[in-house]
Amino acid sequence: MVLAVEWLDSPRPMIRLIDQTRLPEAEVMLEVTTVDALVDAISTLAVRGAPALGAVGALGVVVAMLQAETEGWDEATLAAQVDRVRDARPTAVNLAWGVDRVRPAIPMGVAAVLAEARALIAEDGAANRELSRLGADWILARTGKERVRVVTHCNTGALATTAWGTAYGIIHELHDRGALEMVYADETRPLLQGARLTSWELTQDGIDHVVQVDGAASSTILRGLVDVAIIGADRITANGDTANKVGSVALALACRRAGIPFVVAAPFSTVDLGTPTGAEIVIEERDPTEVTAFGGRRTAPPEAIGFNPAFDVTPHDLISAVVTERGVVEPATTPHPELLARIAG
Ligand code: MRU
Q1: What is the pTM for the complete model shown?
Q2: Does the domain made of 5-123 have the CATH classification 1.10.10.10?
Q3: Ligand 1 close to Cβ of residue 310 (< 6 A)
Q4: What is the ipTM, given to two decimal places?
Q5: Cβ(127) – ligand 1 distance below 6 Å
Q6: Cystine design at 165: which of 10, 73, 93, 169 (Cβ 3.0–4.6 Å)?
């Protein structure tokens, strides 16, 4: 299984990333030893996916501390550089969460921060395995089927996490149980995380799938070609509203009309109980040229202005289940203002 994010102590301390902008054509590794390089990797989506962002957020504090030692930064400069990592992308709560989790250990030194970051990474991998088991159990029970056909959006596999995956982890678990018939992977405009990354992972894992344009997904659902939609999440608010890659809400609407479950899978680190509803989520708007050009070539007329929100928010009443490692809640049928707090422990 590919590791999207790794800490290496030698030949020099670094975060090693697989450059996801180059997949699937080339497997190029990035060696990150500075805050500038990390912020660039996050902004360009060389590293991406909410849980993977949590991991680089935590490891980014280590990188900043080591750079502070080399370059003689004072405390205020170090804090500002850590904030640059924390703020490199706004929507996935995991990035800020990863930074905030290890930040209190800064006065204890680099080794203590690194130990906390490593613990976070180990916990994410374990959480993914557990939520995948819970999600597969829930889907098989709810659909009453022995083998299911799944539609998914964006990329939620090992590349998007520290190991195994979330929505993809459930798909993998169903496959391992012999309970998966077929996956419809949305290509995921404009940066093609589905076509480039999910299809690459599904191919490596020997899982039958087709790649479809995002615009086909609603029709695939309404034609009865799938039994369940499974997506990941970038932020799940206290009432169960969920931000995920733009295009997710169209799947949810179609699932409601078709009467099939719409499942959100994420580690509990993606749950943001401090944000009451999806209306308060900051949606990242990316460079409009990602929309007005394709493969480096302008496709829209020169006068055309692109609109490029990277995420959308699916209202909780369209979500059949939110699956985390702590359990499953059913937002569509459980009206409760603090829904997720029920499994917060
Ligand atoms: O812009 P991206 O590629 O970082 O968006 C990723 C997604 O929307 C994923 O579905 C989400 O982060 C969950 S990853 C397990």
Answers
A1: 0.97
A2: no
A3: yes
A4: 0.99
A5: no
A6: 169
